[in-house]
Amino acid sequence: MLKKLFSKLHSDEVRKEKEYEIKFTGDIDETVQSINNIVGESDDIIQRDFLIGKKIRATLFFVDGLCDSASIEQDVIRPLIYFTDVKRYDQKDFLTYLQEEVVTISELTTETSLEKAMLPFLSGETILIIDGIKELILFETRQFNERSISEPESEIVVRGPRDGFVETLHTNILQIRRRIRDPNLTVQFGALGRRAKSDFALLYIKGVTNQRYIDEMRYRISCVDTDQVVETGTLEQLIEDNVLTVFPQMLRTERPDKTVAALMSGQVVVLHDGSPFSLMAPITFHMLFRSPEDYYDRWQISSFTRLLRYLAAFLAMFLPAIYIAMVSYHQGMLPTLMAISIAGSREGVPFPGFIEAIVMEITIELLREAGVRLPRAVGQTIGIVGGLVIGDAAVRAGIVSPIMVIVVALTAIASFAIPAYNVTIAFRLLRFLMMLSAATLGLYGIVIVYIFINIHLVGLRSFGTYYTSPFAPYRYSEWLDMFIRAPLSLMNKRFPELKPEDKNKSG
Amino acid sequence: MNPHSYQISKLEMAITVVSMVIGVGILTLPRALAASVETTDGWMSIVLGLVLNMVLVLLIFRLHRHFPGKSFIGLWGNQSVAKWIGKLFSIAFVCYFVTLLAYEARILTVVVRMYLLDRTPSEVTVLFIFLATTYAVTKGVQGIVHLNLMFFPFVVFVITLIVIFNLHDASFGAIFPIAAEGITPIIMGVQETSLSFLGIEILFFFLAYMKGKDLQATLVNAGIAFVAFLYLLIVVMCYMVIGLEVTKIIAFPLVALAKEVEIIEGLVERIEPLMITVWIMSIFNTMAIVHFLATKIIKDEFVKKARVSTIAIVITFFSFIITFIPVSLQEAFMLGDYVSYFGLGLTCFALLCGYLYVFIKKKSKQQGNSEAM
Amino acid sequence: MKKKWLLSIVVLLTLTSCWDLTEIEEIGFVIALAIDTLEEEDYEQYKKQFKKEQNFDPQQLYKTTFQVVIPGTVTEDLAFEQVPFFNISAVGRTNFKTLRHIATRRSRRLNFEHLKAIIINEEIARTGAIGKVIDLYIRDHEMRRTTLVFVSKGNGFEVLEDKLPLEMMPGLSIKMIQDNYPASHGMPFPKPIGELATCVVEEHSYIVPRITEKRGVDFVIAGAGVFLGETNEMIGWLGEVDMEGYNLIRGEAENAIVEASLEDNLFVVELDNMDSVFTYEQKDGEDHFHIEIKAEGFFTENWLEGIDIGEQEEIEKVEAALEEEIERLASKIVAKMQNEFHADIFELYKTVQRKNYARWKEVEDEWDGEDGYFSNANIEISVKAKIRHYMTKEQLT
Predict the structure, then answer these.
(1) Which of B90, B122, B202, C294 has a Cα-to-Cα distance from C240 of 20 to 30 A?
(2) Range of the domain at B285
(3) C114 touches chain B (CB under 8 A)
(4) What are residue A138's phi and psi, to 5 degrees?
(5) Which residue of chain A comes nearest to C171, CA vs CA?
């Protein structure tokens, strides 16, 4: 099963930068082997063997999609294959001859070191190796035609790149390749679904990502046995550790920059053809509160927004419950004047606090759901009409108190402040549980449910990683990037819980 | 399932012990101290009690260094006599843990009824906390340790908050004169304080999850020194803010201390419900550890085949019954005293037996060696 | 496994009903309360009724007046035209029983979590029952330790009837007025119920702020009742001038002003920073105390003539006059306490306790009271006053 999915066996060797400075002797087999050692595990690296003038062995290497394949075909392969003047091969100026008289491409360079050739190669140039010649020829075949890539809709940032993933797998991989020119970035393709056989790609950086996670991801995907996988969301549910939880065990994003950051931190990324979302694993709880913007703004600003997001999560989960507990159980905790004014505003409201809260929460959830489904132009109107009119009318009719409207609105706003949409949903669901417990046992109920959630969290794993790390177990170096975001110069360690093979980011 | 796949680091061990020790004691210690010492010198008793317990911790670590990777029950091995001693100890420890669990639950209900829900039946509050601990037990040792790590900062934060916000009301002269009545009352106080550090006996079992080379008592001792520091702050604060005489008669002086707090008038009118909330977390930690250990001993020593959750539920059932045996608060406190004395006695006795066993083993080994020569 | 747990939790949650649920709008928040003795004829009437029901004479009868908020009027715009509170009184032998009498007359359950002030009638205070009267209000978990306690001269419930302009209800006004204590010299430090309970238990003399109703219009918080520690009986009043001296001795008159005179002309100094240090010495079997008052302040009002405040010599003269005035105020109250009330409200005993514990053990039981050790102690007062600056140096005269 495994072998079927992955046509190439991966090598366990980890290539460090120094190791691929391989002097090539002119023997084509040796050179090809060297290049394959470096980038051969990736399935989007194309190797094209042919004979020059039916005699001399030559090999072309290029990155699928980054290069203009029409130009390679027209200007490189065709003239070389139809080349007949074989005698010139033995002459010393064969290379110059090829450049001047055979190849019709506009720009080319020669290179004598494989190491130096790697960077242009990964940015879209094509390598030609000719048997017996001690130089590499690099053709400028970079392709710049942009496809219609639009800004991701579910994750909008103020500062940061505006491109998002699209439904085509290769375009998505290109967006990542363009950002990471490390030859250790490995892309492996496979097909998913018994009948659909849709393409997916597994991405990781050799020498950073722990081999355990790569193997585990491979194994889990290979175990998927279903007719069709439409979206990465489906895949996520089929390969996650624990099905009985509201917390996501993999992150998903539409943003290439976030995906790249995940790769760099040692996570495995899965892309699927037909889905603009990438999956990242393993993750821990604190990663749910990260937005790529955090790393583009100054650290003070980012730290502030980080803290704000934790506050938002707290409000989204606890605020209605605390309101219920205060209003129905612990009136003494409210400041005197506030208690009096809440009591005054609830005068005449026929329902107990719990029913009031539930009614309003369900209303706002309905509004949210309706707003998503409606055509975009109408959606906003409905949001405003629903929010303002229903809220105001409900207060006037004496069904709910004005304070309740504030609480519900604040909760809704807070739940939008969390960067990941699927996390928001988790908090929204837990909110109802909290409200129920607050209505039955007040603060005691809230703390008991909170304890239950914590017990659940410490038992949760994402690909075998403790979900609550870096908090439990303590991983101090990551605390710099948890509630606050320390200056970038201080964060020079990768998150140790992901057990990266290269522990340092910098320094 | 390989129980030894999870390893507790030194710091985690220290925090686990701290979480275990902070429980009922932190609420009642100032009163117990004020009542038994009768001067404001209680804080010195805390220091003495700390020293006593540090020695105990050191001895436990020393003992376990002879048996890395084994719990106190496990170290007795499979030889006939030793095995039976092990079994006896496991019965004693299970009884102790089950009663302790019941006692903690009882105090919890008293506090919850007094300060949060005054008409909710105690049975319901106890049931919920037992549900929580039972669920925690199913998460195994890693879950328990990690829960301690998660709740620990809350507890420290709230206690610090209470102390800081009481500072402006504190009359620092109140703790003088020092040792006016001499040393005797301080020694009387040690009786109370040495019990208030009880919880170190969990080391007998948790040390099995540590690497052999990590078996150093320093950090755990630093941990209980930290607890002592918290105790000290609270006790001194109680004397300075609510006075010695009143501390003597209030059931839970720490809550009274929290009642004195007024944070920036108008933000939160009273913080003692918040304090109780966080304290519930800390007592949950204590209960979860105790519940887990009782379950683990039974599973390892008596019914290896039963499921963890089944054993945990059975223990809950017994503890639930014991919880409601004491009729009044006074009886509950008496139960607490008995449990603590039993625990301290058991700890000392276990240590004694352990060292005796090591001694005998060494002797016989030497004899074996000399005979071989 | 997990499913089973979740299921059982949900089932339990739904099975349990909400025992403690009381909606906020169904509660009557008590903001202040006054405990009084009954008037003669009322007393007779209640006594008769009680006897009819119970067949014996009541040991004691108190009348408690609760001030309850009407929240609806607070939030509506009419706020200041309607009275946002009502007062309700009940009579009973004990506080809790009295409280429960209200339940038969008003639907709202009384809630004391926002209780701000307790006013105790002078007559009750004089019987030594203060500890017992406040017992309920500190014992119950609903109560807080920061509720302020006052002793009223005259009927306490009358204080609760005076709605002050700009303020919502008397209960809240009392607390807000008491917050002015650093600025007003004659107002004692607030006495929260928690602190009072400590005083009652420790059996050392203490004072409780006084509240006086004035002509049915407003009330004054000034002066204090003196309580003898041993019996907890109120033994007399301290007036506003006494309070000034008391606050100076305790070093608590931080923002107070002192009116002093130099050559029959007045001047005013506002204190900015002050402190007092007690030292104790035992000489020839007698107790010697030395109270050193240090005060710093601004020269704020000038009625002096012919004195140039800018001159160092002149200012020293002014300072001397100030010192003299402070010393006069302080000695007056000390003399009053030693000769008239025989109660150590300055907490001088703490100094003895700290300095000479053996001596304290000896005199502990006979510290207060006539011919007690406090009354016979030698108390010396010295004052060091400094005028830091004199604001703008306008020469109006």
Answers:
(1) C294
(2) 3-329
(3) yes
(4) -110, 120
(5) A336
